Amino acid sequence: MKRIVVLGSTGSIGKSSLEVVRGNADLFQIVGLSGHRNMELLKQQIKEFHPKYVTVGYWEAYQELKTIFPEIQFFYGEQGLEELASVEDYDILLTAVSGAVGIRATVKGIEKEKRIALANKETMVAAGSYINDLLKQYPKAEIIPVDSEHSAIFQSLQGNDKKEVKRLIITASGGAFRGKTRIELEKVGVQDALKHPNWSMGKKITVDSATLVNKGLEIIEAHELFGIDYDKIDTILHPQSIIHSMVEYQDNSIIAQMGVTDMKLPIQYAFTYPRRVSNSVLESLDFLKYGQMSFEKIDTQVFQGIDLARKAGNMGGTMPIVLNAANEIAVDFFLKEKIRFLEIYEVIQAAMEQFPREEIQSLEHILAKDHEVREWVKTWEKLL
Ligand code: NDP
Ligand code: MG
Fold this sequence. Notes:
The chain is of the alpha/beta class. Helices cover 47% and strands 15% of the residues. Helix 5 links the parallel strand 5 (92-95) and strand 6.
């Protein structure tokens, strides 16, 4: 029996993880849940899974839920995620909150020497080197990636020596605007960006898929997770998203992981690794339904997310923090219709010019830089 804490249980990944648990109740048990704003859903989840611990975004919700469920230990606010990750009696921490708020909680899970099923990509992007150092200090802790591309690479690396890797090939669906020209992108709106062709995900990551900033963040995430140089990480457009990513070895053999476009498989694999178990909620891939797999070059001139992230990643230090924080605020502005789609790139670029690279000193330094960039972008908004 694996005892699981889900940070962000009311989100897209969180809900999928609960489906995985529902599908195999003999193997998985929920001990902790967390919601930020969506209290109605959180209440339903509490009633169904009877967790021992729950954290919520606000004091008012904390007060209300405490009276409804007196048997549960509640936490709240920014500290709540960390407090939940710091309890002793669990095996796996699924970090599925969106944004940089996941970093501190992930750190706590590592310090408790737990398995981290890591969906929150912002953690490795902003704090990758810090997390890698921490993992050396807590060798019993481990990170198993949930992001589908990284799960695919992780699976394709099993049984092989990392020194023999020639390159990683990260596949990209291309997002909502695949094939569009820059002129066409000038006119797109929020609803257009939220129409992802293959994956159903939270709003922030769906916009990131449309800008291809998501693919850029995934390049940095792969570099940090697998310790592979940036010049050995390629991306390719694969509109059907059947291949979730691949590893090419020195002998030119390529190992790919395939499956349906559903996050439940990488979530369960992060729970059960190194084992593979059946689960009624996992779908089998019907090749004949697709008929063909195709591949194209990504137009990085139009979709600047990849090059911006490569630049930030290669510069290292605080630059990925700047990229990530500026992007989070820019996407939020776009979703609120304060800026246009292509201005997301402008905001990121401006932030990368504003904040010179610094060597990372500490976790506090990472979080302070993240905060500083966000505040700066918020004031910059008035100039747009
Ligand atoms: P969602 O927006 O659907 O869900 C986010 C979750 O985090 C919700 O439970 C939300 O609570 C909670 N949350 C939001 N802000 C805060 C905060 N400030 N403090 C505490 N909790 C907060 O996101 P996704 O599930 O799509 O993505 C989650 C993470 O996984 C992201 O980092 C994303 O990049 C990554 N990821 C997602 C994939 C996907 O398929 N969705 C694929 C690969 C990676 P509430 O809703 O109650 O407000
Ligand atoms: Mg992904």
